[in-house]
Write a structure and sequence with these properties.
With 280 residues, the chain is of the alpha/beta class. It has 12 helices and 10 strands. α1 packs across α9 and α3 runs parallel beside α4. The chain is globular, with a radius of gyration of 18 Å. The mean pLDDT is 96.
């Protein structure tokens, strides 16, 4: 099967950070993916540059259209599913209305998996500014009673981005915040970022101390959000290909009518975005 990664941040070919990100995602996915699963990361040259903008909901919301158009183009290009690589699940429900292939996101997938692993989960976020919005998302998913607490990692955007090159500092800071969440009652720890999670799971630059990555703190498991996302995508594709129901089109995910598409044709097009792909 062919799965497309829809990315929120803009990227450019040859950029060292983008190349490293693709490589660490590949290592992460190779731990769990099916042998026949082909993963492609789709980047836009238009959008938020770096992490700073994602700390603020107005910038984040305007940028979410990148993910929408990435997913729509992926369906047209023959992909079997889309995995959104942002924990905030940007436009997840809207994209499911727009396409007929499975669309999952690392945030929703991780939250649902956490409810299987323990009763209460704790979230470590990239910024304190993202916490309130994530609480709203958790309420929307009906999971508020399963949340122990949300805390933010004590690192600025540049430090967080650097963790995919050297995760030593991120691991130590994560452990400090994790212990506070454990005291709050967390039985499962969720790193709420597509950069933070693989940095912990693979521990680049800290392999001697963490040869298997950081997978638990004081006996409390750390959820691998990237692996959860890809396995959820593979599961839905398998259901769809074998004729089983995989989504409801009754209300929330009803497909737009021809009249609706015609009415919205001006907002459904956006020629600013140019996408390019990288094999993962």
């Amino acid at each position: 099967m062919k799965i497309c990664l829809a990315n929120v941040a803009a990227g450019h070919k040859g950029d060292a950070f983008v190349e490293r990100l693709v490589e660490i995602w590949k290592q992460n996915f190779n731990l769990v993916k099916q042998k026949d699963t082909q993963i492609t990361s789709r980047f836009s040259t238009w959008g938020v540059q770096g992490l700073d903008g994602f700390f603020f909901s107005n910038i984040d919301a305007l940028n979410a259209q990148v993910v929408y158009h990435s997913a729509v183009s992926a369906e047209k290009d023959g992909f079997d599913a889309v995995l959104i690589t942002c924990f905030g699940d940007p436009m997840l429900r809207q994209i499911r209305q727009a396409v007929d292939i499975p669309v999952v996101s690392i945030g929703e997938s991780a939250l649902l998996m956490a409810t299987l692993m323990g009763h209460k989960f704790g979230i470590i976020h990239i910024s304190e500014y993202n916490i309130l919005e994530t609480r709203h998302t958790i309420a929307k998913y009906g999971l508020t009673e399963r949340l122990a607490n949300i805390r933010s990692i004590n690192e600025n955007p540049r430090e967080q981005g650097g963790a995919i090159f050297d995760a030593g500092h991120a691991i130590e800071n994560f452990k400090k915040v994790a212990r506070a969440l454990i005291a709050d009652g967390a039985e499962v720890l969720i790193p709420a970022c597509g950069l933070m999670s693989p940095a912990l799971r693979l521990a680049p630059g800290a392999e001697k101390e963490y040869p298997n990555g950081l997978t638990e703190v004081d006996g409390v498991p750390i959820l691998d959000v990237m692996s959860c996302g890809i396995k959820m995508a593979e599961t839905l594709v398998s259901l769809k290909k074998n004729g089983s129901s995989w989504i409801s089109r009754k209300n929330m995910y009803v497909r737009p009518t021809m009249e609706g598409l015609e009415s919205g044709r001006m907002v459904l097009r956006d020629d600013r975005m140019n996408f390019w792909d990288s094999a993962v």
